[in-house]
Amino acid sequence: MKVRIGVGLGALALPDHQGFARLVDDLDELGFDSIWMPEVLTAPTIDPLTSLAFAAAHNPRLKLGTTLLLPGRNPVRLAKELATLDVLSGGRLLTTFVPGIPRLPESDASGVDPSARGRLMDEVLPLLRRLWTGETVSHHGEAADFDDVCLSPVPVQTPLEFWTGGTAPAALRRCGRFADGWLPSACTPDEVVEAKSVIDEAADQAGRAISPEHFGVSIGYSHHPLSPKTIQSMLRSRRGVDPVSVVPVGIDGLRDLLERFLDVGFSKFVVRPIDTPHSWRAELELLADGVVDLQT
Description:
Order of helices and strands: EHEHEHEHHEEEHHEHHHEH
Shape: globular
Mean pLDDT: 94
Largest sheet: 7 strands, parallel
Structural class: alpha/beta
Number of domains: 1
Helix content: 40-55%
CATH topology: TIM Barrel
Distance between the termini: 8 Å
CATH architecture: Alpha-Beta Barrel
Number of strands: 9
Low-confidence stretches: none
Number of helices: 11
Strand content: 15-25%
């Protein structure tokens, strides 16, 4: 089992272009597998695809990950954007698609009715695969309506894999039917074991299988006990989940949680501080000392 650890920058304020360039190089120098840029429209963070293009040009080795909102995007334009980024980065793109964050004002900012998001993802995910083959594609649906489109360039990675997130039953079944892997967040090891069985069953029913290597978790961590405000915010996003059980405190707490996920067969991780560090370099050094050696 190959263990890989990337660093997510979360919905955090980031440094200027020179500081961001140093951050990218620091991640590479300290042995992390990838940088992960989320898409949160209403947070004070930078656009993921633009920032990953910058990172790709600046550093030739670090893998480039994004958690990207899918509903509301033009599928052909999105297919071309991601294929271009994969080509220009030499095949380093990692993508996880999500329906959106279920809280205001973010849920309104995407411009898509929440009741339609799952349906749109079910339509667009297989369409992206067809477009990335480079064959001539016609499609008539709710998300797109076109004839005779032949995408160029096509991705370097064949196929260009995508993962999905989410823990709702519909999201798990969608992962099994369409995705190459699963990357949820705010989960316990017990939860992901149960969820994986739902994903595997849905995949089997669809006549496909997801590699056991393609299950991971995005983990936010803190250096201090969670504040009541943070706990309440998380409870609104993940009802019924104790925030204290999914947000480890300190690097030792993070390592312990990673090892518990490894014990149940999950091997790909995105770790992210939930508060903006005073120094990204110091934070990354502390994180590298604590968890990078878990990679195999």
